[in-house]
Amino acid sequence: MKYDIIVIGFGKAGKTLAAKAGALGKKVALIERSPQMYGGTCINIGCIPTKRLVTAAKEAQFVNNNVEGDYYTLSIQTKDKLITALRAKNLGMLKDNPNIDVIDGVGYFLDKNSVEILTADGSKCLIDGDTIVINTGSKEADAPFEVKSDIAYTSSEILNLKTLPKHLVIVGNGFIGLEFASMFAGFGSKVTIVGRGKFMKNEDDDVANSVKEALVAQGIEILEDCNISSLMGRGLNFSQGGMSKSIIADAFLLAMGRKAVTEGLNLDKVGVKIDEKGNIVVNEFLQTDTPNIYAVGDVRGGELFTYTSLDDFRIVFDKIFGKGERSTKNRAIHANTLFTQTPLAKVGLSQKEATALGKDIKILKLSMSAVPGAKVVNHDIGMLKAIVDNKSGEILGAAFHCIYAHEIINEVAIAMNFKANAGFFKNQIFTHPSISEALNDLFGQF
Ligand SMILES: Cc1cc2nc3c(=O)[nH]c(=O)nc-3n(C[C@H](O)[C@H](O)[C@H](O)COP(=O)(O)OP(=O)(O)OC[C@H]3O[C@@H](n4cnc5c(N)ncnc54)[C@H](O)[C@@H]3O)c2cc1C
Ligand SMILES: NC(=O)c1ccc[n+]([C@@H]2O[C@H](COP(=O)([O-])OP(=O)(O)OC[C@H]3O[C@@H](n4cnc5c(N)ncnc54)[C@H](O)[C@@H]3O)[C@@H](O)[C@H]2O)c1
């Protein structure tokens, strides 16, 4: 069978490209190895289930478990219903178009225009394509220490835990570690985070401290500078400050980063290179060294977010069907958010980064306790921080640790794309009472 485009993996970029190309009348094949992963990581084991559960965990404090049933178990069921519906919707979005074939099985290259698919029953089929897009995502990095425990979970596995662990120990204090810590603590688990360095060492100290205080206020124990030697049965063994220690727990979450899924693709057969970290090497148009083969989403390394995968779709679509003007070099300024109960959202440079670049900066800060809108929604934890050019007021970066941070940071990102400066926010008329209106006071300090 011959296709215009073959996509390997049902990720954000690939499924969007398949849908748009199919709508243009192109013949498209999308290969997915597991029907449980139709729609990819985001909707099945990533953003959507985790953010649904972070929200449910916030509600947990208002629920009487004796009356309503165990809220954690109910929340897992609600999450399962949600992702099942999204999976069906994602499949329908492609299958309803006769130009698109969704093929179940594991895809791998035979040559630069041919992909073989190994299906669950052991049979194989061969398809050919002019353009081939690798969108195989990432998976949990292996632990660099011995793990012999049947209560050690990856983030995907722990999302299916039916009963709430009394004590959860989380290894890793990155995005996944902190979000799951905040989530499980909200549901009522005792949570201990075991990190190998200083807590959020890449962040500005005031920002890291604000997040730390909020997590500690949730009852979370944070251990820093730990060197883990093994996880055996119910015990995690590590050294801290020269002392050997161990913690006994009911469940362990291992969240030490993610790595690109490339094994078995036969990349060496088709001249596609991977770098020292295991990511596929691409140019600014996401083309590999074999120009008809693209790599999009987590598998190309760099930023591992659903919205950067979506932007990869825009770049590849523009390269194939448009003017080829979009590239990773001209991606719009965009934010990211750590979804703890009080989220931390950031855009642009931190104070540390701006200082390291030798910028002449002014720091603007506002405590959320001074924001009426935060009082109204009964969540005045945290702070707003902006880094601006000392002379022009150009906004260089912002870090918001506050309720709705994941929403208001987008206002700043858009403003930065339009080169608006501090004066713009100082004088903007916002609805009242709101969190956005705090930007009047924050940027009014310039
Ligand atoms: C717990 C967690 C929470 C997250 N939260 C957020 C968040 O809040 N916001 C955010 O922006 N990002 C979040 N992310 C990151 C985000 O989910 C990923 O960056 C994004 O989903 C990556 O999508 P992708 O396009 O790379 O492909 P994926 O969605 O990962 O899809 C890859 C697909 O390829 C399939 N596949 C792999 N190999 C083959 C093969 N050989 N043949 C056929 N199929 C194959 C896989 O089964 C999978 O379905 C989170 C990630 C995790 C793990
Ligand atoms: N809200 C979001 O957008 C969101 C949420 C979850 C995940 N993600 C994406 O998924 C990616 C993966 O998340 P992640 O949390 O696994 O990775 P991460 O890179 O964010 O954090 C990994 C953490 O593990 C720690 N670590 C590594 N080895 C260790 C060891 N031996 N002992 C103790 N700690 C160790 C690191 O110090 C780091 O803090 C993120 O980088 C992000 O791009 C995004």
UniProtKB/TrEMBL annotation:
Output the Gene3D superfamilies linked to this UniProt entry: 3.30.390.30, FAD/NAD(P)-binding domain
Query: Which Pfam families does this one have?
Result: Pyr_redox_2, Pyr_redox_dim
Q: List the disulfide bonds.
A: 42-47
Which residues does the Swiss-Prot or TrEMBL record annotate as the active site? 432
- Residues binding FAD are 51, 107, 136-138, 298
**Occurrences of domain FAD/NAD(P)-binding (ranges):** 3-300
Q: Which UniProt keywords apply?
A: Disulfide bond, FAD, Flavoprotein, NAD, NADP, Nucleotide-binding, Oxidoreductase, Redox-active center
PROSITE patterns, per this entry? Answer: PYRIDINE_REDOX_1 (PS00076)
**For NAD(+), which residues are the binding ones?**
172-179, 257
The cofactor required is: FAD
Identify the residues that the record assigns to the Pyridine nucleotide-disulphide oxidoreductase dimerisation domain, covering every copy.
Answer: 336-441
InterPro entries documented for this protein: FAD/NAD-bd_sf, FAD/NAD-binding_dom, FAD/NAD-linked_Rdtase_dimer_sf, Pyr_nuc-diS_OxRdtase, Pyr_nucl-diS_OxRdtase_dimer, Pyr_OxRdtase_I_AS
The free-text note explaining how the cofactor binds reads: Binds 1 FAD per subunit.
Name a GO molecular-function annotation.
NAD(P)H dehydrogenase (quinone) activity
> Its family?
Belongs to the class-I pyridine nucleotide-disulfide oxidoreductase family.
Q: What is the protein name for this chain?
A: Pyridine nucleotide-disulfide oxidoreductase
